[in-house]
Amino acid sequence: MHEDVRRLNAPPDRSLHLWFEPWGDGLAFAAGCVIELRATSPVPGALEVADLADRTAIYAWPGSTLQIIKDGKLVHTYDVAAPDTPSGMSTREFVTTSFGEPPVPPKRVVYNGAEMNEGWPERIEEAQTITDYSIGGVAFPRVPYGLESGGWDFERPCHDCRVVKGQLHVPSCDVEQCPACGEQAITCDCPSEGDKGE
């Protein structure tokens, strides 16, 4: 088995955006973390790393699979082996000829002490104005983050919508609790007449 291992360090002041080909998938990593890429294949080859303006593209070689390890923990795998490319072409040459350069990642901002896509803080602020849900003709006050039943770590921002303790979730957040039945708001059967995120 052939293996190629690369270590990438996210900059100390911004996230690291990686794009993985031929899988056509991107992941962002927080500032300051260490990423290890571990590719294996029954055929010899090497990863090709292309540093672009605001992202880094990783191109696997035909037959290889890839593991992404962040700060020593496995966080993602690409188990489907990279397919063969036309004779004489690398994965990078084939993908960029067929589809162009990797997409530009969305701009990121820090809000509530958490990094998120530009424009998301406005969605959080808008969510604070939706103070109740109309369920079965009755207005129920929404459940703020931190008052839900369940085993969430409320000292950290919500893992889905990034609100902090005491704020109302962005509608459609998978953590928000239905104020009528106590179940997950986006999946419960309560008849709502407003945006409960359904």
Q: Keywords, please?
A:
mainly beta, 2 domains, 32% strand, 198 residues, single chain, four-stranded mixed sheet, elongated
Low-confidence stretches: none
Count of individual beta strands: 12
Oligomer: single chain
Strand order of the largest sheet: 1-4-7-8
- H/E element order: EEEEEEEEHEEHEE
Structure description:
It is a single chain. The radius of gyration is 21 Å and the shape is elongated. The strands form four sheets. It has a four-stranded antiparallel beta sheet, with no helix packed on it. Strands 3-2-6-5 form a four-stranded mixed beta sheet, with helices on one face. The protein has helices at residues 91-99, 120-127, and strands at 2-9, 16-21, 25-29, 34-41, 48-51, 56-59, 65-70, 73-78, 108-111, 114-117, 132-135, 138-141. The model has no long low-confidence stretch (mean pLDDT 89). The protein folds into two domains: 2-99, no CATH class; 107-198, no CATH class. It is built from two helices and twelve strands. It is mainly beta and 198 residues long. 9% of the residues lie in helices and 32% in strands.
Per-chain topology:
Elements (H helix, E strand, L loop, with lengths): L1 E8 L6 E6 L3 E5 L4 E8 L6 E4 L4 E4 L5 E6 L2 E6 L12 H9 L8 E4 L2 E4 L2 H8 L4 E4 L2 E4 L57
Parallel strand pairs: 2-6
Antiparallel strand pairs: 1-4, 2-3, 4-7, 5-6, 7-8, 9-10, 11-12
Describe the structure in brief.
The chain has helices at residues 91-99, 120-127; strands at residues 2-9, 16-21, 25-29, 34-41, 48-51, 56-59, 65-70, 73-78, 108-111, 114-117, 132-135, 138-141. The chain is mostly beta strands and 198 residues long.
